[in-house]
Structure formats: structure tokens, C-alpha cells
Specification:
The chain is of the alpha/beta class. It is built from 6 helices and 9 strands, in the order βββαβαββαβαβαβα. Helix 2 links the parallel strand 4 and strand 5. Bound molecules: iron/sulfur cluster. Iron/sulfur cluster (SF4) binds next to loops.
Length: about 210
């Protein structure tokens, strides 16, 4: 019998979700290894390469041990870029365990999954997003980089339905980035763009992972 398939996993840990609308919620993180982009501002460069091969059973076992002391209801699959690997069986197994599943993606790749919450974070220079996420994204997270322009914000606001929040997130607590985020927010208000907000990375404010 062939060995069970594995996923390349960078790390697994317990914390709170620091970003987006789920901010502050207890969450177990599974960080997959590998990304098809090389963003200059990336704060998870350690996940670009490597990673340990783990089966779905290995991952569930690690999560079960973490849940003994931190019984969070949510698991967040993040990266790297989770959709570069076949995460479908993992998501199905997590749902079978009664867990709720968030998946974070740069939005360039789509796989049909049973996820409860999809966070889409389009990246420069193209900010390309697969069309399926227009309907499926629960939130859109946009890092306020040097490259981000108001025109990109306007384009993304036009792509996603008005009910889907666009979240401007300053780049790793940089003051220039927060100030730029506020300027972009002001421009959005003046232009009548709806449902855009500015949010921090709470885990970094709290000194957590
Ligand atoms: S898409 Fe995300 S994980 Fe990949 S390089 Fe960019 S910021 Fe890093």
C-alpha cells in the first residue's frame, strides 16, 4: 500500500488571530511551507522553503495535543500559500473533528474546500485574484505597502461585492504605512467607496506569535 500523502508544514502553534475581522479569537495555526510570490514586505519568509512532511493524521495529532491546553474552536491554515498544496483532505478532516476552518490565501489559486472563512490578501504588483473569490471571500486584507495606490484600492472595491469588507493593514507596525492607510481611507470616503477599514495586527501589538 502506498504511504499516505503528506503536506509540507512550516509550523503549528496556538495563539489568537491577530488580523482581520476574526481578530482576538483563539485559533490554532497550521502554516504550510512554500509560496509562489516573493513579496519584499513578507513577514513569514521562513515559510518560503522547507517545511516538514506531515500526513493529515500527523497534523491532527499535533492539534489534539495543543487543544489539551488551548481548546480553540478555530484552525487557520496560513502560509506561505496554502493553496499550492492539496489541503482539501486536511480541511475535510478538521471539519469532521468539529473544528471551524479559516484559510488565508493570496487569492491567485483556487481549490473547492469546505472552509468556513476565506481571507483573501491580494499582493502587488498585479493584485490578481481568482474570480471564485469574488463570491467566496469573507474579507479582503490589503497590506499598505509603498506600492499600494488608490487606483488599486478602487479596482479591488469594484471587484468584490459591497458587503465584503476591505481591510487596510499597515505593514508590520510601520508608522509611514499607518499614515498612508489613513490617507487612503480618507480618499475612499471622499470617493464614496464603501466598507473599507483600517486595522492593526493585534498579535504583534501583544507581542504574540
Ligand atoms: S504572498 Fe504572503 S507568504 Fe507569499 S511572499 Fe507574499 S506576503 Fe509572503
Amino acid at each position: 500500500m502506498p504511504p499516505p500523502p503528506t503536506l509540507r508544514i512550516s509550523e503549528i502553534f496556538a495563539s489568537v488571530q491577530g488580523e482581520g475581522l476574526r481578530q482576538g479569537e483563539p485559533t490554532l495555526f497550521v502554516r504550510t511551507a512554500g509560496c509562489d510570490l516573493r513579496c519584499r514586505f513578507c513577514d513569514t519568509k521562513t515559510a518560503w522553503k522547507g517545511g516538514a512532511p506531515m500526513t493529515v493524521g500527523d497534523i491532527l495529532g499535533r492539534l489534539a495535543r495543543l487543544r489539551e491546553r488551548f481548546p480553540a474552536a478555530w484552525v487557520c491554515l496560513t502560509g506561505g500559500e496554502p493553496f499550492l498544496q492539496d489541503i482539501g483532505p486536511l480541511v475535510t478532516a478538521l471539519k469532521r473533528e468539529g473544528l471551524r476552518v479559516q484559510v488565508e490565501t493570496n487569492g491567485r489559486h483556487y481549490r473547492a474546500l469546505e472552509a468556513d472563512w476565506r481571507t483573501v490578501s491580494p499582493k502587488p504588483p498585479s493584485y490578481a485574484v481568482s474570480r471564485e473569490y469574488r463570491r467566496l471571500a469573507a474579507e479582503v486584507k490589503i497590506i499598505v505597502t509603498r506600492e499600494l495606490t488608490f487606483e488599486v484600492l478602487r479596482r479591488l472595491r469594484g471587484f468584490f461585492p459591497p458587503a465584503t469588507p476591505l481591510i487596510l493593514q499597515p505593514q508590520s507596525r510601520r508608522k509611514w504605512s499607518a499614515a498612508k492607510g489613513l490617507r487612503l481611507l480618507g480618499g475612499s470616503l471622499r470617493a464614496g467607496l464603501k466598507n473599507i477599514r483600517l486595522m492593526t495586527q493585534a498579535h504583534k501589538e501583544l507581542g504574540l506569535k
